[in-house]
Structure prediction request, 251 residues.
Amino acid sequence: MPDIRPITSGPHFHWFGYYDKQQFDPTNRYVLGMESVFEGRQPVQNDEIAIGLIDIEDGDAWQQIGTTTAWCWQQGCMLQWIPGTESKVIWNERGGEGYVSCILDVSTGESRVLPQAVYTLSPSGKTAIGTDFRRIDHMRPGYGYAGIPDPNFETLAPSDVGIYNLNLETGESRLIVSIEEVATLPYRHGDLSEAKHYFNHLLFNTDGTRFIFLHRWRFGDGGFQTRMMTANTDGSHLHIVDDYGKMSHFI
Prediction:
């Protein structure tokens, strides 16, 4: 049996988030984590968490490196090491009327803010893709971030939001797949024109040439339906992988 031990302790509460993010640094010495002063309820607008490094070669010492109010229990703040770097991490923060991301070099202390939040990073660490966390919070509370209303609350399939590509070096971003574009694709099981749509669960493939995502919708207050789709990193060649309606977790 492998040795197992806790590497954080109370009185506060610690976790990392989803399983598709890089938690260990390249040396396997430092582990990323998040710290909350409460549990047992959903976060609200001004609830802040601490972001830290755990040094597993120094008594599991906790070093706080930042804070954020852009987080949820399910996926945290998308905290992760940036592939291809030795000491850079990224996480999401709130900024103005939307969400942004922060890159920090934990060795030098140098940091910068990018104009969009990230969902998943390419294997090269050069680019990210993301979607509207305001929309996710409106459509599926617990997976988005509380605090900023969805500007398209009344719009079933907005054309100005969806999936965007973000250059992690320059900060340049552009919309590559709109919700409207995907919502109007034919669905063999029925008419989706009266449903409200959103995207979730984005992930690059292993060579960074395509990404996968879930297109979800619901009618009124009913439960949501899902189809799994893939696309090139510029949003072209959309492909429906599964349109059964009940698609869920994958990696």
